[in-house]
Amino acid sequence: MTVLLFTPNYNQSVIKNLVTMISEEDFDVSKEGQVEIIGWLYQYYNSEPKDEAFKKKKYDSSEIPAVTQLFTPDWIVKYLVENSLGRYWIRVLHARGDKRSASEIASNFAWKYFMPEAKQEQDLAQPEFAEKKVEAITFDDPAMGSGHILIYAFEVFLQIYESEGYSRRDAAKSVVENNLHGFDIDRRAFQLTYFAVMMKFRAENRRALRLDLRPNVFEVPTTGLTLADFGIEKDTNKQITKNLAELLANFKNAKELGSLLDFSTVQLNDELINSIVSTKRVGQLSFDESQSLEHHNELSKLIAVGTALQNRYVINVTNPPYMGSGKMPSILSRFVSKHYPASKSDLFAAFIERLHGMTDEDGLFAMITQHQWMFLSSFKALRERMMNWPIINMAHLGTRAFEEIGGEVVQTTAFVIQKHPESEYVGTYERLVNFDSQSKKQKAYLEAVKTPSLNYVYRTNQTNFEKIPGSPVAYWVPENVFEKFQNSPSISDFLFAGVGIQTGNNLRFLRRWYEVSFQNIKFNACDAIDFARASKKWAPISKGGPYRKWFGNLEYVINWENNGNEIKQHLGASKQKAIVPNEQFYFHSGFTWSDITSGKFSMRLLLPGMLFESNALSAFSKQKNISDRYLMGFANSTVGNYLLSILNPTIHMKSGYFLNLPVSRSAQEPNITEKVRQNIVLCHVDWNLDERSWGFKWDLLVSCIAEHNRASPTKSLHFKVICDKYVPTMQGGCVNG
């Protein structure tokens, strides 16, 4: 079936938009415009299947290319290539005795996104680099998409070759033949990259299309071949067939696994494989012989891709696919869990490990990924593995690094890593998270290149990260704060913290307090026994809510009749029972905060007699030698917020991060405790002025009106169950909490 990429209608189609809305300059080959056009067209083509796939809880294998396609902005491509390939070549020149600084060399090549390394205490000279030849510098993109990164690398290679005395025509031939490599699971992406590389080659060498030269870019294929297709019987010695069987097994699901496949344990030129591939057939072929020839040809292609995936490359650069473990197809999920256990939480993290494995010992790799791996506990094992991988440079982009992705959810970081470990290496980090658009981030980065002393440029040794629990990549933290984490007690010494009830169906089991009979709510229960004695159905529950410190966000009640038996027996949509953890703390006084917040951390009092839901993390005192009110004040302070943002600067604040908060003791503890108590009282009064509070009596303005001028008593709105529906009814007077 033929699929039309675009509606063949000039007046109402993308073709018209291409011609009328995109400037002619963007199609200019000399300015690399065509490469960007190809990339944007590819992303446009994938937009509809991507939107459909995003609606699903779990992706199908065929949807992986669409949902993981994201065109990399041009300036980020240049950052990645110049700081990896460009940096490597500068090291070669320095090893040869070039006395110019790295900045001077980069300026000579017009690499304006190159950031020089920080000054190092130890000598990092690599004299063996003096023997390096440009022809031997292999460059790979294992998730190449439409080839944007490879095409810019092509241009940088041309510059290097020219500086070595090559003509651009001969340089282009050598780049295609020796330097560039790439992989993708999507055939259309492979075709676009192949086309882009050949057009770049043709622009420099008129004989390009007549040369018998194929770019080293590959579609990672899948196969249904088995040993039987090569006439191998089941009872054949497994030692003889081991490599062939493993090769075929690896490619069975290659359309899902792509470059994550590692053939390092497979001998691809063993006696059996060589004998099959080298078999010649001449003359007229029978049907069986013709089919056998097809199998042999397919095997040859598999060996070519397997060999390319088996190789190591001097430079690896990519924008990998992003896909959380919960969305992965089952085959991909099992493979990542088995082969990349430290990074199984997201596909991009598995590619971080894979690129490290695909890089030569003296090489570099560069990526742009989501920044979760820097902070979240689910990536702690990966961070521990990376502790000996020197981060040469990082441009921490945060949100809005991609114009087509808005909001605060997708936060990214671009970085360059050296394969060879250097325990004392000092990396350079550009903190661009506070610049709120792609263009502002680009401008800020270029300013940092010109003026490395700007206050958003940081330099630190990675070993400092180990001083903070969980080893987050907190490069912006001053030395004295690292010491505080290392030498201070954590709040876990004084408080227990945990998650609350996950009902599986809040619409069924939770209500706002004014939606149920007020007489059927039990407030101030001492414990579960006291609640049961009251014979009430509803108990107040904390459910998170917006930013609010000290007191408030108390609007919900939960069906806790018969000790929550109906909830505990409920099966959710996934056929799993509700989760009711930390039940020993129910009805106890404590503190609570919202799991998700895009602003500052805010802790509130959890009243006695209340429960807490999964979106309202809660903490309870376990020691009496320090005031729990003092701990609450410290967590709500500017210092507490700063320290918590180091532990986890994402929009989530799980209990594990909170418990790692280092606590400062103070001689002013009694005074601070009293101030916290006063804040709680004031915010309690303030909350009760809101009609959402069950303690609401009257509006503050009403109390300022003379009694004889006041309107009749306020009518409060209640709901009664009539015919299985909640029907609003009016009752005189105000609710008394």
From TrEMBL:
* BP terms from Gene Ontology: DNA modification; methylation
EC number(s) on file: 2.1.1.72
Q: Which InterPro entries match?
A: BREX_1_PglX, MethylTrfase_TaqI-like_dom, N4_N6_ade-DNA_methylase, SAM-dependent_MTases_sf
Q: Which Gene3D superfamilies does this UniProt record tie to the protein?
A: Vaccinia Virus protein VP39 (3.40.50.150)
- Signal peptide residues are none
What UniProt keywords apply to this chain's record, in alphabetical order?
Methyltransferase, S-adenosyl-L-methionine, Transferase
Q: Does S-adenosyl-L-methionine appear among the keywords?
A: yes
Type II methyltransferase M.TaqI-like domain mapped to chain residues: 178-388
In alphabetical order, the GO MF annotations are:
site-specific DNA-methyltransferase (adenine-specific) activity
NCBIfam families annotated for this entry?
BREX_1_MTaseX
Q: What is this protein called?
A: site-specific DNA-methyltransferase (adenine-specific)
Q: Which organism is it from?
A: Lacticaseibacillus zeae (Lactobacillus zeae)
